[in-house]
Each structure stands twice: as structure tokens, then as C-alpha cells.
Amino acid sequence: MDSLSQIVLGGAIAAAIAPAAHRRAALLAGAALATLPDLDGLLIVAFTDNPVSLMTIHRSFSHSLFVLPLFGTLIWWLYRRFGHGRVAQAPVRWWWAMVLALVTHPLLDAFTVYGTQLWWPLHPPPTMWSSVFIIDPLYTVWLLLGCGVAWFARTRPLAQHALLAGLVLSSGYLGWSLLAKAQVDKAAAQSLAAMGLADAPRFSVPMPFNTLLWRVVAMTPQGYVVGDRSLWADRGVMQFSGHPSNVQAVRQAADVPAVARLQWFNHGFMRAQVQNGELVLSDLRMGLEPDYNFNFAVAKADGGQWQAIPPRQLLPAYRQAGNRGVLGQRLAQVWRRIWDPAGQGAGTVQSASSNP
Fold first, then answer.
1. Which of 21-35, 93-107, 289-303, 307-321 has the lowest mean pLDDT?
2. Do residues 107 and 128 touch, judged by C-beta distance below 8 A?
3. Cα–Cα dist 239/192, whole Å
């Protein structure tokens, strides 16, 4: 999730747990602790400029549920041993405040589609519950209000009530997002089964800044299909459009380290294209057809074989010169699509064809 959401979540949790007399200090401490896991980027950049490594190592060791409780306990012990202040006055409360401010960071990240390596150093694919967009105001606003009230109300009961209300409402929104995702997944499963894709690997993810409009991608032997679903406007059969991917090139280049790493990281949800003799892989989880946010040139054709090259990250079309307005247009289209049934009004974000 975005930094503001992490800051107010950490601050709200710490301030709700710490003694009332320590509330402002807990708000600041929780906010600071909640930002620490994302500082892994500074460490990674110091050791590599490989864009595939930068993407796939982020949210790993610094987001591990094995590492963060130990790290939080170490910080707590240092403050208790040498600080002789608030932590020493209420050690149990402050231990819970510090550890939970850290641990809830990766748990919140796991609700997004990017993927979070909760079990590092174990090596399962990153966890991606993908029920909220990376920025969602309806999640953040309740925590922001709760922290704001608590800062000014300080030791009064109103502060604790505001913090608890913010935590309950934001958590309830996450619960709603999972219910919404289940409805979309049910509609997608029925339509894909009718297309002969009942067992196709697939994922669903909300479109930017909302949980009413969703995007579903399923992999096929020739590429992938994409569909969108508005919980407000759509009823009946969900429609999908088919898109090609060079799946043969991916199989042939499976031993290229960057290909294998991306295949693991994105659960195989990627588009493969050959551009100027190079294999370009695009992460299908983030972006809108045909532009995706993460695109990497990872190999080149050489004598009928794919040879590894130093990976390069390629900009999506909407970020290239002369295309700055495309992103705004697509966000406006997403907003219109929430309220319009598929194929009517402003039209769908994806085409309504059902060809796999």
C-alpha cells in the first residue's frame, strides 16, 4: 500500500495500544516504525542496479513475518534497556505497540497484487490477495481521521474511541474488498468454464482507487484473456477479450535467470513479446491493456536460442514522450465504466469479445 496508509495504520495501532498518557509519542513511534519495512529499497539499490532484482527483492526480508517480530523486539529491548522512559513504564503495552506497527505493514501489503514475501527466507511465491488497489482513499481516510482526532484529543476518551473506530472501519473495508473479490471470481469462473478455461490460472484485481470495478486475467495456451466486471453496473455473463503472448519463447528461455525469477515472482502472469530480437516480459498484474507498468527486456535471440542479457526496464507507452495524457484518459474511462454496463455508455475498459 501507499506510504500514507502505512503511516496512519502504524500510528493508529500503536496509539490505541499504548497508555493514554503516551498517545502522541505512540502516534509518532507507530508511524515511524510502519515506514521502516519499505526502506529496503535503499539497501537493495546499494547492491544492484538490476531492475528485475530491484522489483523482486522488494517486500522480501524487510516484510517477513519471521523477521519483523524479532526486529520489533530488538527495538523494544533497546528502548527499555537504555531509554528509561515511556517503554520502561509500560513495557508490555509498548512491546505490542511496536511489534504490531511493524507486522501489520506486510499484512496490509499482501492485500495488493504486487506480492509480499511474508515467509522469507522460505521461498513460496509472494502472497498477493489482490483485493485492494495500492492507493485506496476509502481505506485510508478512516485511519487518517482517527489519528487526527487522537492527536488533538490526547488523553481524553474521545481519542481512543476515534482510533478504534478508524481501525474497525478500515478493517471492515478490507473485509468488504474480499467479499467483492469473491463475487467477481464467481462470475469469472462461470464464464471461463463456458469458454473451456475452467482450470486456467487466473487472478482478479480492483482497478485504480476503488473496489467496484475489477479486472480478471486468465492464462491460455496462446496467451491470456482479460475481462472487467463492475459490481454496480454489470449483471449476467462476464465477457473476456483474447490477447496473444509468445508462450513458446518463454518456454525456450525458461533457464534465463531473469525469466525464471519473474515467473516465480508474478506467478506466471506475464506477457511475452519479441521486440527487435529481444524477449520482453510484461507483468500482467499491474496496468491496463495494452500498457503495463513493469516491462523488462531479459534475453536476445542468438542462433535459435535465447541468451541472457543484462535486464532493462522499458517504459509503458503512456509514460513515453507525447503520451502524457493517456493515463488521465484511462483513469476517466475507469471511472465511467464503474457506472455503465459493459458495452454501453462510455464503453468498456477492455473489448467485449469472448475469443480466448
1. 307-321
2. no
3. 9
* Grid cell listed for 56: 523482486
Q: Could you report the per-residue pLDDT of 52-90, keeping only the tens digit for each?
A: 999 999 999 999 999 999 999 999 999 998 877 899 999
Is residue 198 within 8 A of residue 192, CB to CB? The reply is: yes
- Return d(Cα 147, Cα 8) in angstroms, integer: 7
d(CA 221, CA 228): 21
Alpha carbons 176 and 172: distance in angstroms, whole number: 6
Each residue's pLDDT tens digit, 257-277: 999 999 999 999 999 999 999
Q: What angle do CA 43, 26, 162 make, to 5 degrees?
A: 120
Give me the residue label for grid cell 475489477: 214
The residue count of the chain comes to: 356
Question: Helix axis angle, 91-109 relative to 3-17, nearest 10°?
Answer: 150
DSSP E strands, 106-212: 202-206
**Three-class secondary structure of residue 1 per DSSP:** coil
Helix 157-194 / helix 137-153 crossing angle, nearest 10 deg: 170
In angstroms, the first-to-last Cα distance of the chain is: 32
